[in-house]
Amino acid sequence: MSAERLDSRVSAIRTVALVGPAAAGKTLLLDALLAHAGVIPQAGSIERGSTVSDHDPLEKRLGHSLQSSLAHFTHGGIRVHAIDTPGAPDFVGQALPALEAADTAIVVINAQNGIELMAQRLLTAAGERGLARLIVVNKIDAPDVDLPGLLAQIREVFGRECLPLNLPADGSQRVADCFFAASAGLDIQADFSSVADAHRALVEQVVEVDAAFVDRYLTDGDVDPRELHAPLEQALREGHLIPVCFCSAKTGAGIGELLSAIETLMPNPAEGNPPPFLEGKGTEPQPYPARPDPAAHVLAHVFKIVADPYLGKMGVMRVHQGRVAKGGQLFVGHARKPIRVGHLFMLQGARHVDIEEALPGDLCAIAKVEDLAFDAVLHDAQEDEHIHLKPLDFPTPVHGLAISPARRGDEQKLWEVLSRLVDEDPCLRIEQAGETHQTLVYGLGELHLRLLLERLRELYKGEVVTEPPRIAYRETISAPAEGHYRHKKQSGGAGQFGEVYLRVEPLARGAGFEFVDAVKGGTIPGQFMPAVEKGVRSALASGVIAGYPLVDLRVVVYDGKHHSVDSKEIAFVTAGRRALIEAVREAKPLVLEPIVQVEITAPEHSIGDITGDLASRRGQVNGTRAAVPGSLIVQGLAPLAELASYQSRLNAITAGEGRYTLVLSHYEAVPPNTQAALVGAYRAGDEGD
Fold first, then answer.
1. Would you tell me how many other CB atoms lie within 10 Å of the CB of residue 592?
2. Mean pLDDT of the chain, nearest integer
3. For 22-47, what is each residue's pLDDT tens digit?
4. 55: which residues sit within 8 A by CB, 6+ positions away?
5. What Pfam families does the entry give (predicted)?
6. I need a labelling partner for 237 at 20 to 30 A (CA). Which of 149, 329, 550, 606 fits?
């Protein structure tokens, strides 16, 4: 949409997500922005639990963010929506959806800790999503920080397109603008580097995307930055420029300049890349160009679900197209029955601010709608029911915990409460283990599951029993094989009959599952083939040799028999299941284990002990790199099963100074002795079929 035609109310909206590692200071940074904009009298304190975004009692008690939180303010005629996100890797399921709702990702880096894995991960994710990106180096007032070295490291790790928009000055008590002020011919000094050189690099980077400005720059030697808005937005959109700002949320240094950069340089809803909406069913949906036009059909995306004890299920959404009005009607995805927008509000931390309408770019919430779900698209025209956003690539939850109520008869109540908590977090998964009748919850790490238990105890109001974390093993096959089963049951009157011949073939690791109907001549009538697939899938879910889900195989059903009277769906479900079990047992089955990328930050003198310990856990070290002075980062791969309670071991090696992060890398076969132990411990629950 051209700038001339863009609604002036929409052009005055900025939506940003504050992302980055834990302890980077994102929560205090948001408070500092709110205070500078006059929304709150002064920035809050983590220690006192008085910040706007860390409003949950558990967050206040633990002293760090556990879920994403929203705030907004108006300053200089611009309405800014900001999403504060947790930085611990276990809570990336809260951080990644924030990228769905923002036009700009502000990646916050702690000047003391340097570049951490979460900063790299989220900057990359924001780039893949096509967002404008801004790096903010916080805590520049901290003692013994090497800011010139950190800026050089940022450019080395993230790319030469990372250029300082401002530089620390007067011993980090303030910052010097390198874009606008430097062009006025003022003699501006910074603590390091040259403001003039930084200005020149910025202008050259921006004009490169527009040939007309390149010619002017080569002729005149400079271009007024106020004329560079369009090429600047293009450079941000294309990832050709990633500005770097310096600040201290604690002292306020650079906060005004950061706010000015958000208002004047970061894109409005029409200036960034359009959200990756898709239209249509099947494997090849077509891109759908959402327009930030209040007069168009409504398209809004639910990027956060909150189970509010008073308001019921609350959906937090970004409006991408159209106008959502209080009292209006919306459809949720494919639903045929509309919902009424009875309550419409913006979130200011824990506060709900009632509004009458929300425009493209606005973040708002509706409550008391049980049909809402994470990733749902809301629309006001039924012909838009097949529009959806390209799904995010979330990490796979691999830490498992078995949970049961201490009091018998409470199983359903516990399941309902767990389901509400899982609704809020796309990186939690819940399942019922059929063979043991246990409730299993999978998360991204020990901290993730510990928080789940804390919240469960608050909502459930009862005692729960837990068993040690389970590893999310998988089963697969390593050779083709065939299976056959005839299900025949006669007990007076009509019986049951179904016969299935199938073949299993291994697929590449990570390929998933394929089901192929190769039956010819109607030996298995078409109406029974879904029943065969259902039986096959039930065997896949429960496993064959060790009780873990089967993955990475193709199942080809090529023959069978039916009976005109006795054949029923249940007969083919059973036949499909048992034929698959028979085939897998002959297909050289393997148990797979999750292999994780591990990144360990520790003092230099501990690195030898850490690498030796990692090797003893079947791990491999891929390399080391510098962190803050005196520390190194060890990168490697290790089986997740070998890293149970690893923090305790790391504390012993580093005297409590080490920390680590895990990210699932891939699955590979367990050693033979481990497979023998897992198979031996498994008691097949489906032998009585």
1. 22
2. 90
3. 999 999 999 999 999 999 999 999 98
4. 69, 349, 350
5. EF-G_D2, EFG_C, EFG_III, EFG_IV, GTP_EFTU
6. 149
Two tokens at 196? 């003039």
Query: Strand 286-287's sheet: what is its strand order?
Result: 286-287, 277-279, 387-389
Distances (CA, A) of 622 to 109, 267, 609, 633, 636: 24, 39, 16, 11, 5
Give which of 284, 385, 248 is closest to 330, Cα–Cα.
Answer: 385
d(CA 602, CA 604): 6
Contact 685, 435 (CB under 8 A): yes
The Cα–Cα gap between 261 and 268 comes to 12
Residues 480/506, Cβ–Cβ less than 8 Å:
yes
Grade residue 220 by pLDDT with cuts at 50, 70 and 90: confident
| pLDDT value of residue 646 | 84
Residues 6 or more apart whose Cβ sits within 8 Å of residue 336: 382
Pairing relationship of beta strands 377-379 and 329-332 according to DSSP bridges: antiparallel
Backbone Cα Rg of the chain: 28
| Digit-coded pLDDT (tens) for 414-473 | 888 898 899 999 999 898 765 446 688 988 888 899 899 988 888 777 788 888 767 889
Assign 319 to helix, strand or coil: strand
More confident residue, 84 or 334: 84
Residue matched to tokens 């990106």: 133
Gap between the Cα atoms of 220 and 203, Å rounded: 13
Judge whether 363 and 370 are in contact, CB under 8 Å: no
428 Rama class: left (phi>0) / alpha (psi -120 to 50) / beta:
beta
Do 555 and 580 touch, CB atoms closer than 8 A?
yes
